[in-house]
Amino acid sequence: MYYFDPHIHMVSRTTDDYATLARMGCVAVSEPAFWAGFDRGSVDSFRDYFHQLTDFERRRAAQFGIQHFTWLCINAKEAENVELSREVIAMIPEFLDEPGVLGIGEIGLNKNTRNEAQIFLEHLDLAVQFDQPILIHTPHLEDKYLGTRMILDMLTSDHRIDTDRVLVDHVEEHTVADVLKDGFWAGMTLYPVTKCTPQRAADIIEVHGPERLLVNSAGDWGPSKPTAVPDFIFEMRQRGHAESVIRRVVYENPIEFFSQSSNFDYRAPDEEAVVTN
Amino acid sequence: METSATQILDREFLELRARILELAASFDRVERAQGTVEGDQRWDLLQQGLEVLLGSQEERARAVQLLFSLSYDPDWREKYGLSGNVSNG
């Protein structure tokens, strides 16, 4: 089965991981901008990072038949530096017309501070100003419930925001219902220990149905498994779910959501076949 | 997709048994060590989490998640001074 990993940080992964993903059926990835593991010191550092996301990674993925898409922002961990955050937000439009740039993300909250909320709101302004879809990071562990509710408050009180064009990621059992109820898309991150497992993601599909739900690996530089989406596919098959339901979650839903971006030039592998005599 | 409760138990019994053993061994390990964790809020939360599992309520996973979560304050925007519709400022 072809699948799409809608949230994976390939800059942190090896080229061998691209080969493994391709062998397991991955045909496309979307890579949100995120924290590098350390706080960057200047806007030029982000400019270089965005160049890596929009150029180098796209070419590296293409070597394995994987189409690479990306999202741009300054992440919540670095939003405490408000001055730098505003410089980055002002620079992002330089890249919005680059091929494969799908929107603004992953914006959100980390420790649910005032500065994080302020910079989140300013990212929303940017997305509205440039008519961009939005991909949202929700906090970890004990901060997730509070942070998700704060994020939903900010989104739903802004009448400029089109809920169809917002994906709220890293949902779990205690946040998924609120996100879907408010009309947003929701992503489940299959991440050891701190987020969701393939088994619990399958449970959430069984409880809430496959509509507007995506699964991703969020593979990055920390403990994570870039092939977690195939693990989810296997779990769903073990439980006897129809292939059509699995395909909807791992392939059709990401494509439906991402198709709202003007830069989403995805072509299914069977459409790319070229016969030459 | 119609899977019976017995079929799910057949499939998951050994894994659940192993997880309970891991919990038991972890609790033993803490109690065998020097010092005490009595009064540590994390220890209290773990005890409460076990009680959720033994309860009869639905959506145990959601209840455990909320147990380990900070509470939501609907007035957070006012407290942060971010109550206006205009975000910049």
Topology:
The complex is a heterodimer of chains A (277) and B (89).
Chain A: E1 3-5, H1 15-23, E2 26-32, H2 43-62, E3 67-72, H3 82-91, E4 101-108, H4 114-129, E5 134-137, H5 144-156, E6 166-168, H6 176-181, E7 185-189, H7 198-208, E8 213-216, H8 228-238, H9 243-258, H10 269-272
Parallel strand pairs in A: 1-2, 2-3, 3-4, 4-5, 5-6, 6-7, 7-8
Helix pairs in contact in A: 3-4, 4-5, 7-8
Chain B: H1 5-32, H2 41-54, H3 60-67, H4 76-80
Helix pairs in contact in B: 2-3
Task: Report on this structure.
The complex is a heterodimer of chains A (277) and B (89). By secondary structure, chain A is an alpha/beta fold. Helices cover 42% and strands 14% of the residues of chain A. Chain A contains ten helices and eight strands. An eight-stranded parallel beta sheet of chain A has the order 1-2-3-4-5-6-7-8. Chain B contains four helices and no strands. Chain B starts with a helix and ends in a 9-residue tail after the last helix. In chain B, helix 2 packs antiparallel against helix 3. Chain B is mainly α and 89 residues long. Chains A and B meet through helix 4, helix 5 and helix 7 of A and helix 3 and helix 4 of B.
